[in-house]
Amino acid sequence: MKILIIEDQILVARFIQYQLQLTYPDYCIEIAVSVDEADRYMAAMQPNLVLCDIQLGDRIDGIDLMKKYRQDFIFSLIFITSFQSKEVIDRAAGVYPEHYIIKPMDESRLYAGTHLLIQPMAQQMQLNKGKSAYLDQFSAAEKKIIQLVAQNFTTKEIAAALFLSPHTVKNTRHRICRKLKLNEENNALLAWAIKNKDLLDL
Q: Which of 33, 51, 65, 136 has the fewest CB within 10 Å, making it most exposed?
């Protein structure tokens, strides 16, 4: 898990970083105290989660900065700010933050505002890690053939779509079945591919 804290008050940023590291000692947690520094971290780090102050004392505020980042990066977002007006909250809602923590904050408020988001994110990352390891057993060609099988393509149709011979496709299907320990009769691969579309990103 990679977390970026964007906060121009270094003492506040260090407090957030320290508290997060106590709870998540294995996570990469960095601080950016300016827009330029945030730009560099976003490009190099590509964080999973951004905690951003709204009032950055820079050329743009945190809301406009997040609008810019939403165009190029995928990340979860928590705004941390002393602003409580409806107007500011409505503006912040326009960049779809997962949470909004009001300053001043203490350990409990920060924990409640971050843990309810970080915990499911961490669980999903573990699932994705296991999924990635599972996919490693298949070559790119095998994955593509499974995708087409799941769409109910015949061997002949798969061969035409991938510019392969039907014999090559048939052999590849046999190899996939062996890896999956499937009985090759009764459309077992088709049934398996349809059932596991989500697992295989199909």
A: 136
